[in-house]
Amino acid sequence: MPVYDLCAFFVGRWAIVREIEDRRAGVRHVMRGSGTFALPSGDPAGLLYDETVTWRPAGQEMTGTRRYRIANLAGARAEVLFDDGRPFHALDLSAGTCAVHHDCPPDVYDGLYRVLDTDRFTVRWAVTGPRKDSVLMTTFKREP
Question: Which residue intervals define the domain DUF6314 in the entry (predicted)?
Fold first, then answer.
């Protein structure tokens, strides 16, 4: 499903399920949580994304957080940045899907965004290199 206005599509709270297959370690994890896309004050061409997830490896409950900045919003296009301002990847959902790439030497992240409908999208990352060999599949579902 094409997206013509990233800001209108993303803004709000999303339920997250992230499945991680660590092929090197031979383990699979499932994380659950929520993420929020919000308009930061003073930046009409950007969004902040904040996420909190929990998972239970080996019977222990763990929590993780992350923040990204979505900058230079222009219709279906934007730049995704790490919280410290470093570039992560470009994003263009005008076709409803977008292949993305990020070098994190010595590893490589190849991703695919896919918009399923007005209230659901997925992001899949294949991470390969000398330190990592994993696939991360995240499903986002808009919360009411």
Answer: 10-142
